[in-house]
Amino acid sequence: MVTISLCMIVKDEENVLERCLNSVKDLVDEIVIADTGSSDRTKEIARKYTDKVFDFEWEDDFSAARNFAFQQATKDYIFWMDADDVLLDEDREKFKKLKEQLPSEVDAVSMLYHLAFDEYNNPTFSFRRYRLVKREKNFVWKGAVHEYLEVSGKVLHSDTAITHRREKKEDSSDRNLKIYEKRLKKGEEFTPRDLFYYSNELKDHGQYEKAIEHYEEFLKLEDVWEEEKIRACINMAYCYRRLGNLEKEIESLVRSIQYDVPRPEVSCRMGDLYLERKLYDKAIMWYQLALMVDTSKILGIVQQAYSTWYPYLQLCVCHWHKGDKEMAVEYNKKAKEYRPNDRAVLYNEEFFRKHFKEVGDEK
């Protein structure tokens, strides 16, 4: 069985660090923690779990910090988490099995990362990240912000998931944007990934026109990951929506399709646009398309709502307006399988009950 080093970078994480480490401490053989300047009890808590707690001077570069932590590892493989991540019980079992059965020729393992959840605790926003890598390969982190592990060789895609459980409000919502702008002022040349994530930061901070400008610059580049090009088109559509430019929003959504099959998010938005115009047959086509895509094969961002309950709920609306009332009821039932207490679903049920009762009474 392989051995594993857990490597983390932390700062002021006293509220969540113990929870994270308790979820993984018995699954790894070594814990390495690089502290980037905590002023709370973070290091004190870390030392309960390991004597490998190091100070690393923060230099506005997440990759530098993560690479430093990786350099302290001594085991066969390196696993990384953030302090507000946890391994839930089901995923602890999957991780344990993975560790026991991992072939030695595997160089890197990707795992699901669940970042947002609905009221039933079902993941609503997920994507994959490389979480476990062979130490002797010396894979390194790249990118000062929104850093990533550059891997190669034999890769395994695991069904193990890391769950993100943030419990504090960061006082650094514009931290990443400031880091990017600081680098620009220094005259640094952005990589394609930098350009993509800088555009995202601009979007998230409401600078829509500037974001669109940089997304367009990004989309002109070659040798760029298709998932990021798809996401750039989707994000650009959002910017145009906020600016009130419907024509450009549609154009951006359709543009994403040139890179791969339509993402459910794209199909649902196209369906919404036709539904708003009462073009029900066209809307139905797009909602059905959203349900056809196998999201398990998508390595980029997946928002589960758009391939599950949401298109079913919208199909219910479309079929009702078309006069296909029995079909509308069936689609509402399918939406209920995912969200049994959803207000819209329950409203529809009551509406159907009253409608069919009135129809029966008339007979």
UniProtKB/TrEMBL annotation:
Residues 5-137 form the Glycosyltransferase 2-like domain. One of its GO terms (molecular function) is glycosyltransferase activity. TPR repeats lie at residues 264-297. Its EC number is 2.4.-.-. Keywords: Glycosyltransferase, TPR repeat, Transferase. Signal peptide: none annotated. It comes from the Bacteria. It holds the Pfam family Glycos_transf_2. This is Glycosyltransferase. It comes from Ureibacillus suwonensis.
